[in-house]
Amino acid sequence: MGVVSAAQPSSGAATTTVDDSARTLPQAIESVPAELARFPQAVVKTVPQEIGPVETYLEAKLPLMEALPLPDLIYGGGVLVVVVVVQAIGVRLLTGHFDKRSEGIKQRPTLWRVDLLFGGAVFMMLALHLGSIVLWSAALVYGQIIPDWERAARFAALSYTTIGSDLTLPKEWHMLGPIIAISGMFTFAWTASVLVSIVDQCNHLRRSAWDALRARRAGVKHARPPTLPTAPTPPTPLTPPPVK
């Protein structure tokens, strides 16, 4: 019974394989950002082609599909979900920061600290909405729907705020504007409810600050003046009894 010996690779071949891996790995890492940047564009180009037969069949069976094309629903709906998830993360950070700061204000209630906290919360809400507009602008630019960043940002901002834009998208993406508006209504309603809660808490903090201020003023007003030390009274001399 013969013994089959496995062929061992030579050290030169192993060295060549390691060198090739060392050269190709940095090249692959450098190409990752470019591939990620081309991903939305590839999706936008391939989605209409891939679902074209399905869309044609559904349009024949369901005339409503002509008003709601599938590329808009798939691409726009995906970006809408991303926008809402980012909004959820931002609202969670906002409420956590507000609750933490409000606990500190309760220990030392002052009016200017309450107003500063409220202004910071409003600014964070503004940043959340501007971030959502940036996400929609990136989806339009990297998807080659609107290649210009300025026009994409203007279209996204006007659609996001439900004002409406005069820019016309290609026919296969004509429902993307209303989807952007729907995402804006979602996020604006969300932040509006959070703002109502923040205003209510700030009113409670402001009342506490006013009460503390009145207490300090009342304490200063009714403070007693310091009493000066009085000189000790000299002892009265003893008079001898009268002599009879």
Automatic annotation (TrEMBL):
Keywords: Membrane, Transmembrane, Transmembrane helix. Residues 226-244 have a biased composition (Pro residues). It comes from the Bacteria. Residues 220-244 are annotated as: Disordered. The chain crosses the membrane at residues 73-95, 116-142, 175-199. This is Potassium channel domain-containing protein. It comes from Candidatus Accumulibacter aalborgensis.
